[in-house]
Specification:
By secondary structure, the chain is of the alpha/beta class. It contains eleven helices and 13 strands. Helix 1 packs across helix 11, helix 2 packs across helix 3 and helix 5 packs antiparallel against helix 6. The longest helix is centred in the C-terminal third of the chain and has 23 residues. The protein is globular, with a radius of gyration of 22 Å.
């Protein structure tokens, strides 16, 4: 391995009682596009309270923020994020047709390389991995060596939006397709305690199964459902009517646009995969900033996202401190 587990520190003593070294905290920074600026607030809140993450694994925007932290460039990334306006965001989008993505991503690459051009993952002070997905095979790739910017780009290469990135002969795309919140990766890098940051905690709730949907609505209209079921499905119908102003007039609503379909579909897939993976390998602590009002591509709202990340971490700080408290041994 390229990191040294002995970096946990030496055992000390106080009052005749030996104290075990503080567990090494690993961050698993999840995917979530513009909502990922909240990761900056999470890390800031940890540092303000004397908690230093020692290991970082990130997927997509989590790889960008985590990589900048590991490289000692978090302040530069934060300044860049806070400087973004809608106009500047549009200026970073080099849209063109006829290739494998809507954007080449060259302008964003150049922006990252201004501070990170010569930085290699294996030279970082803290163990770091960016998670990507290999096209065709579907392999989960942990990028722990090579250029940091290339690792970031591969991890956030959202299919259909950015071109895939070729690293060592593999065509790589967004790691959220296989591991949206890389708890397993942080654990494999040697973390003793895993803090996972879920950017979709209040965006999508647990998916429900709605059987025979059309039949139920017909039965409800005829008054043949029990009172409890009438209440539940009546609420569903009211919500649907609010979202669809034509529903009560029998007019079919216009279908959602391509961007909306892509974003919603990707959100659903990412959320379900994250739930499944964290059920099998749960983190020790989960921080879920309340980001439901921020759109995936609203990168110009960094101030709000960072503040929400910080607030969520401060709420979880008692649990974090308790989890990191080294056990006393006689």
């Amino acid at each position: 391995m390229f990191f040294d587990r002995s970096a946990r520190g030496a055992v000390g003593s106080e009052g005749g009682v030996d104290l075990a070294p503080q567990p090494r905290l690993g961050l698993a920074l999840g995917a979530g596009a513009a909502r990922g600026w909240a990761h900056i607030g999470v890390i800031r809140a940890l540092i303000e309270n004397g908690v230093e993450p020692r290991i970082v694994a990130g997927t997509s925007i989590g790889a960008v923020v985590g990589g900048c932290y590991a490289a000692g460039r978090l302040a530069e990334l934060e300044a860049f994020a806070r400087s973004l306006s809608m106009r500047r965001v549009l200026g970073l989008m080099d849209v063109r047709l006829g290739r494998s993505g809507l954007m080449a991503g060259e302008r964003l690459r150049r922006a990252l390389e201004r501070d990170l051009a010569d930085v290699r993952v294996e030279d970082l002070a803290s163990p770091f991995a960016a998670v990507a997905t290999e096209l065709r095979s579907g392999h989960e790739i942990w990028l722990t060596r090579g250029g940091l910017v290339d690792a970031m780009r591969a991890s956030y290469a959202l299919p259909g939006v950015f071109d895939p990135v070729n690293i060592a002969g593999r065509w790589l795309v967004d790691g959220a397709l296989v591991n949206p919140i890389p708890v397993t990766t942080a654990r494999a890098l040697g973390a003793d305690v895993i803090l996972a940051v879920n950017l979709h905690g209040d965006v999508l709730k647990r998916g429900a199964i709605i059987p025979a949907h059309g039949e139920i609505l017909e039965r409800e209209a005829e008054g043949k459902l029990p009172a409890v079921e009438r209440g539940v499905f009546g609420q569903m119908r009211s919500a649907a009517s609010m979202m669809n102003p034509f529903a009560r007039r029998g007019i079919v609503a216009a279908s959602p646009g391509m961007a909306s379909v892509m974003i919603d579909a990707f959100n659903i897939v990412q959320d379900r995969i994250a739930r499944s993976r964290m059920a099998g390998d749960p983190p020790d602590i989960t921080v879920s900033p309340r980001l439901g009002k921020l759109g995936l591509f609203e990168f110009h709202r960094a101030d709000e996202a960072i503040a929400l990340g910080r607030e969520a971490t401060l709420r979880a700080m008692p649990e974090i401190m308790e989890t990191l408290r080294p056990p006393a041994t006689s």
